[in-house]
Every structure is written in C-alpha cells, then in structure tokens.
Amino acid sequence: MTYDDFNAYCRALPATTHVVQWGGSHVWKVGGKVFAIGGWAEDRTAFSFKTSDIAFELLKEEPGLRPAPYLASRGMKWIQHYAEPGLSDGDLKKYLLESHRIVSLGLSKKRQRELGLNQT
C-alpha cells in the first residue's frame, strides 16, 4: 500500500480528519482521536493502527509487523506494519477499519451521535 492509497482509504471512513504532524507523518483521526498513522519508519513506508488486545498479541510477532514505536512502549495496543511480508493491502484495510471502530467507540456517546457513528 502506498501513502496515497492509505490516505484515500482513511479519508473514505466516516467522520475522519487528516493532519500531517510528527515529522511529516500522515495522521488520521476520528472525533479528534488518532486511529491510524502513515509514517514513523526510516526510509520505508510504514502504517500504524490500534488493535484489540488479542490482535496485538497475534500480530506483534508476525514478520514485517511490530509493536508500534512510541505508542506500544507506553502500554497502548498499536501495531506497525513496516516491512514485507507484513499484511496484504486487504488485511491492512480491515485492521484500519477496526482501529477506526475501536477509537470511535472510545468517544462519548454524545460525540458518537454528533458524528453519526455507531448508531444502530
């Protein structure tokens, strides 16, 4: 996946905003909370996303994946896809979507309603 592909996918998710920060990283937020980061790897493409506890345990040992620098060291369950083989583009999109969901569920119910999220 390229950064253009990553940005296009994240842009298509509901109630997202994009900023470039932290040394030129593409940072995607939902309700003001970060759910995906494109960048933070030296001289290669990298994508970081929040995961469930179980997914974190499964993914952290996979080739091309690792606990996300800075975030995981602070006890947060974030994975970084930084090298091959890593995840297929389809699987990466599924984890980005799940990260968006996890982060949006952490917003207040009022904020979720305002953004039109998680309404069933």
Could you give the topology of this structure?
Layout: H1 3-12, E1 16-21, E2 25-30, E3 33-38, E4 47-50, H2 53-59, E5 65-67, E6 78-81, H3 89-105, H4 109-115
Antiparallel strand pairs: 1-2, 2-3, 3-4, 4-6, 5-6
Which properties best describe this structure?
globular, Aspartate Aminotransferase, domain 1, six-stranded antiparallel sheet, 6 strands, 120 residues, 4 helices, alpha+beta
Written overview of the protein:
It is a single chain. The protein has helices at residues 3-12, 53-59, 89-105, 109-115; strands at 16-21, 25-30, 33-38, 47-50, 65-67, 78-81. The chain has a six-stranded antiparallel sheet. The mean pLDDT is 93. It is globular and about 40 Å long. It is built from four helices and six strands. The protein has one domain (3-110): Aspartate Aminotransferase, domain 1 (Alpha-Beta Complex), CATH 3.90.1150. A hairpin with a 2-residue loop joins strand 2 (25-30) and strand 3 (33-38). The chain is an alpha+beta fold and 120 residues long.
What's the CATH topology name?
A: Aspartate Aminotransferase, domain 1
User: Number of DSSP strands?
Assistant: 6
What structural class do you assign from the helix and strand content?
A: alpha+beta
Quickly count the domains: 1
SSE series: HEEEEHEEHH
Strand content: 15-25%
Strand ordering within the main sheet: 1-2-3-4-6-5
**Average pLDDT level:** 93
Helical fraction: 25-40%
**Through-space gap between termini:** 32 Å
